[in-house]
Amino acid sequence: MKAFFFDLDGTLLDTLADIGRACNAILKKHGYPTHPLPQYRLFVGNGFGRLMADALPADAALDAQAKALLVEEARQYYGLHMYDCTRPYDGVIAALEDLSAAGHPLAILSNKPDGLTVEIVERYFSVIPLSLVRGAKKDVPLKPQPHALLDMMQTMHTSASQALYVGDSNIDILTARNAGVTSVGVSWGFRGAEELRKAGADHIIDTPSQLPTLAKEA
């Protein structure tokens, strides 16, 4: 039975507006220019630290400690506002329910901070029986490094040949490749089908309803 591991932001949840607003709030607070929310499609995916680094002006003269404080401010602001606009993509809940009903183990691996990942998943996916939910943890390399995914696979007693990693960005496709598992790109997410094709996704789907069929074919 195939096990499905999912990215979160841009794959299961449309979180872009809340993430962008959090970053813009902190940028504005400290006198830096803000960005149109669609621009954050290019910033997300590599963890909160990289997100804020990319959102800051290239000439921002900040040392490591100052940048870390900005990251923490943005993280805290986001934690207070991460339900303002966020919603599951249309069809995601039904597709996950279908996969679960068919006996497929389901798990989520995100580069979002672990505490926020667990909290937001409990909010939107409490009806889905998930085997594991993990976000970014200290001393564990972020995606696309495969360490977290491989550890989850071991915990779930899942072999690479029976695992699929589903995501919306080149980071997710590289994560799957680095772990030796089948990659599934979703075109409805933040980055689009072209990036997924260039990254070498094994499969690209356009709607969540394709996931149960893919489970039989991949």
Question: What is the C-alpha radius of gyration, as a whole number of Å?
Answer: 17 Å
Find the CATH superfamily of the largest domain.
HAD superfamily/HAD-like
Main sheet?
6 strands, parallel
End-to-end Cα distance, whole Å, is: 11 Å
The overall pLDDT average reads 95
Secondary structure tally, helices: 9
Approximate strand percentage: 15-25%
What letter string, H or E per element, gives the SSE order? EEHHHEHEHEHEHEHEH
Helical content class: 40-55%
CATH topology call of the largest domain = Rossmann fold
Describe this structure in words.
The protein is of the alpha/beta class. It has two domains: 3-14 and 87-217, Rossmann fold (3-Layer(aba) Sandwich), CATH 3.40.50; 16-81, Orthogonal Bundle (DNA polymerase, domain 1), CATH 1.10.150. Helices cover 43% and strands 16% of the residues. The protein contains nine helices and eight strands. It has helices at residues 16-29, 48-55, 64-81, 92-101, 114-124, 147-155, 170-179, 193-199, 211-217; strands at 3-6, 13-14, 87-88, 106-113, 132-136, 163-167, 182-186, 203-205. The strands form two sheets. A six-stranded parallel β-sheet has the order 5-4-1-6-7-8, with helices on both faces. Helix 2 (48-55) packs across helix 3 (64-81). It is globular, with a radius of gyration of 17 Å. It starts with a strand and ends with a helix. The model has no long low-confidence stretch (mean pLDDT 95).
